[in-house]
Automatic annotation (TrEMBL):
This is Sigma-70 family RNA polymerase sigma factor. One of its GO terms (molecular function) is sigma factor activity. Keywords: DNA-binding, Sigma factor, Transcription, Transcription regulation. One of its GO terms (biological process) is DNA-templated transcription initiation.
Length: 161
């Protein structure tokens, strides 16, 4: 892969990957590191992946999971209690509007399959077909999960207001 191809791919996918990584890490520098690692892994491939976008997103997710496993092995700090409200570690300039931030916090309260699908659909504006390809589930299952996540969000937001 030459430099111009990599730069083109970076310009296409870096912002989406960063937002996706930030949804996991809740930390700007960790999210940037995950994105950087994904593109580094891309440069190390002998054969170009067929679905580069999905491949990059899988790399980010898998790298995050690996990092969390390492932290759990070596750390006594309970990371389950960390939330997005920690302003010291989180760069919230992406979420400038208060209502947008509130919605994002509510989405973070969803269970993992619903949270991921909701983020991909609403924040990254992926189609249900793209989500189904990425998660290796049917389009109908994506729609069902979106419906269920909306119901859960409605309950969460109803409690807030």
């Amino acid at each position: 892969m030459n430099h111009s191809e990599l730069e083109k791919l970076y310009n296409l996918y870096a912002k989406e990957l960063f937002f996706y990584a930030l949804s996991f890490t809740k930390n700007k520098s960790d999210a940037e590191e995950l994105v950087s690692d994904a593109f580094y892994q891309l440069t190390m491939q002998d054969i170009f992946p067929s679905h580069i976008k999905f491949w990059l997103f899988h790399v980010v997710k898998n790298k995050f999971i690996d990092n969390e496993r390492k932290k759990k092995r070596w750390s006594f700090l309970n990371i389950d209690n960390l939330t997005l409200t920690d302003n010291k570690q989180t760069d919230l300039h992406l979420l400038t509007k208060e209502s947008y931030y509130s919605l994002y916090q509510s989405i973070n309260q969803l269970k993992p399959p619903y949270k991921e699908i909701t983020l991909l659909f609403y924040f990254l504006e992926w189609s249900t077909k793209e989500i189904s390809q990425y998660l290796h589930i049917s389009v109908n299952q994506v729609r069902v999960n979106l419906h269920r996540s909306r119901k859960q969000l409605k309950e969460i937001l109803k409690d807030d207001y």
